[in-house]
Amino acid sequence: MGKGGVGVGYGKGASLPEEQVRWVTGEEVERRRGAGERVRCFDCRGEEEYRRSTVPDAELLSQAQLMFQREALQPLVDELCAPGSADELVFFANTAGPVGIAAGRDVYVMAFLAECGLPLERMARLTGGLNAWKAERRPCVARPAGGAVTAAASAGLDALLAQLELPH
Fold this sequence. Notes:
The protein is α/β, with parallel strands linked by helices. It contains seven helices and seven strands; from the N terminus they run βββαβαβααβαβαα. The chain is globular, with a radius of gyration of 16 Å.
């Protein structure tokens, strides 16, 4: 934890030691990608938000998916945590506030991955989140609905609802 025991955290018990959280700017992400470096961006917001607008080439890895549809994401989590992977991983939600509830969904996802064995050194937060990215007039893209993870997650949710005898 940071000074005085306060770290970067987000509700649900997820927190990261503040002094170990790295930040990268949108400019740095674009520069490094342009130079051919392997920088993967992960949108930690909800699927609907992701579909409306996100960073180009960002992958959806939402807090909600990790909380409720973990099985569908297990192959991606295994890939990210595999030894020898050299990709820089950048996580973002909307604002990237530093503490408390403002810290955002990206902290939850990062804390989860750290618990799974992904070194914090490979992870960074996007300074200002997607809101800052947009304010800096960086490009954004819309994503079509569906996809393999979404379909698998939806099937898992349908099965859970059926098991609990709840309507969809």
